[in-house]
Design goal:
Elements: H1 3-20, E1 28-31, E2 38-43, E3 47-49, E4 52-61, E5 71-79, E6 84-86, E7 90-93, E8 97-104, E9 117-125, E10 128-137
Parallel strand pairs: 3-10
Antiparallel strand pairs: 1-2, 2-4, 4-8, 5-7, 5-9, 6-8, 9-10
């Protein structure tokens, strides 16, 4: 890993801890790799409680490892579980970063709640894909 990429990764981690504070929640990181564009994906919490919200950050670099310049509506966020609702699922890039917030509400019946489940959050940009897995904690717990 080059010094520049290591510096960018450390800056992302420092920025993340500044944003989420000293919470006991553990963020989830995903680092894509390849020869083209890359996305470093961060989900603020690995366990999302019923009716909980969480933030998602993508840091996008070009094939040279430089932050992608500002663009509108280019990073797409998706989830494997339909119950996840994104504030904005197609986001702008500013200085290489794209941000969104998502919420999850357990839609199962109170008398017969579904178990907790895994969900995969995906960020895409110009062929680059990065995924992070989170746990959706059922209202039964």
């Amino acid at each position: 890993m080059t010094f520049r990429k290591l510096f960018i990764l450390l800056a992302i981690i420092a920025f993340t801890f500044t944003c989420i504070g000293c919470s006991e929640d553990e963020p989830v990181y995903s680092l894509s790799q390849g020869t083209g564009y890359n996305i470093n994906l961060l989900v603020s919490d690995g366990e999302i409680s019923d009716a909980g919200s969480f933030s998602i950050q993508a840091f996008v670099t070009d094939p040279n490892g430089d932050p992608v310049p500002d663009e509108d509506n280019v990073v797409m966020f998706a989830c494997s579980q339909n119950e996840i609702k994104f504030y904005d699922d197609r986001c702008d890039i500013k200085n290489g970063f794209a941000y969104t917030t998502a919420t999850w509400e357990d839609q199962s019946d109170d008398d017969n709640p579904d178990p907790s489940m895994k969900a995969t959050i995906t960020a895409t940009y110009k062929g680059a894909i990065s995924t992070a897995q989170v746990t959706l904690v059922s209202k039964a717990f």
